[in-house]
Amino acid sequence: MAIHKKESFTNKEQELAAFAKAISHPARIAILKVLAERNECICGEIVDILPLAQSTVSQHLKELKNAGLILGTVEGPRSCYCINWKAFEKFMAAFSFLFNKLKVQNEKACC
Amino acid sequence: MAIHKKESFTNKEQELAAFAKAISHPARIAILKVLAERNECICGEIVDILPLAQSTVSQHLKELKNAGLILGTVEGPRSCYCINWKAFEKFMAAFSFLFNKLKVQNEKACC
DNA sequence: AATATTAATCGTATATTTGCGATATAAGAT
DNA sequence: ATCTTATATCGCAAATATACGATTAATATT
To answer: CA-CA distance, B51 to A94, in Å (whole number)?
Structure first.
């Protein structure tokens, strides 16, 4: 790749892309689903549910956390995660804004 | 990676992830924006607008097309693209369904 | 027919992602 | 103090993604 071109795009474009990237893996979607189903914050449970090694799950959790989609706190020897609904709503709004706004304009396909 | 684990997840999880992956790059979001702004289907215009080489833009267009988010037809020596609103709506619905449905259940964060 | 224009594809270099085992860390239990 | 238990991190291998220039293909133009 040699040169990063992502910087040439707008902040909004980058933010939306980063959000999409965070949920662009089925494992991370599965994790979000588990976290959303139980209000109780889980962690090791996710490892049991997903067909992935503990280290891999931990890595996916880290990515989701870095993207701001989940919150995590240490509770003794275990970690408690949950969905950050606010971040989620923010991104959903940005998403809808970008594409619904535009949709009203034209609607019909041309090809 | 050696072993693909994506197959271990549900179809819905994979579809949603694939959709997210398609829009997980700022260049592709920028392309979608351009296509949505003009009902007229563009192609070479995108190359002029984006800070990327023609081959790179073509590659991004291909990915968007493969993901079903845009439609493309050849018009003589040029290609005409436009947004596939139906696919977009379908995925937006799946998206909202997955996360809004769950959101109603609990709403409050626990961490 | 020869040339220009437009876009797709090929080949290639580099970067990033994904996944795992091994190890480290940190707190609770014995 | 030692031993579990739970989780994060490190180091590595393999796969994918990103980007570009060069080439090809297909159609208009001259």
So the answer is: 23
